[in-house]
Amino acid sequence: MSASAAYAAGSADCALAPGLAPVLAARAVQGVGAALFLPNSVAILGGAFEGAKRGRAFDAAAIAGAVLAVAAELMAWLSAD
User: Fold this and answer.
1) What is the pTM of this model?
2) CB-side neighbour CA atoms (13 Å) of 23
3) Measured in whole angstroms, how far is the alpha carbon of residue 8 from the centre of its chain?
4) Do 14 and 30 form a contact (C-beta atoms < 8 A)?
5) What's residue 62's pLDDT?
6) Distance between CA 39 and CA 30 in Å, rounded?
7) What are phi and psi of 13, to 5 degrees?
8) 36 burial via Cβ count (<10 Å: 0-12, 13-18, 19+)
9) Which pLDDT value is given to residue 81?
10) Helix extents (H) in the chain
11) Chunked in runs of 10, what are the mean pLDDT values of the chain (81 residues)?
12) CA distance 66 to 74
């Protein structure tokens, strides 16, 4: 729950930030929240799959993360003023 709260607080702060410095601070809070999600997702994948299926699940999660990271950067670039 703390990961969701940190990420949500950082997102709200980004939306309300009056300048660059507050945006950067809010992005740091978002980063902490996002980092807190990782151990949970690894534990869920590790517990949900066994053997070769576990490896494929981790592969799929890594690929999805990489694709979404690139997509987020592209959307940010396209929406920039």
Assistant:
1) 0.60
2) 4
3) 11
4) yes
5) 92
6) 16
7) -65, -40
8) middle
9) 63
10) 2-16, 20-48, 51-79
11) 87 90 92 87 91 93 92 88 63
12) 12
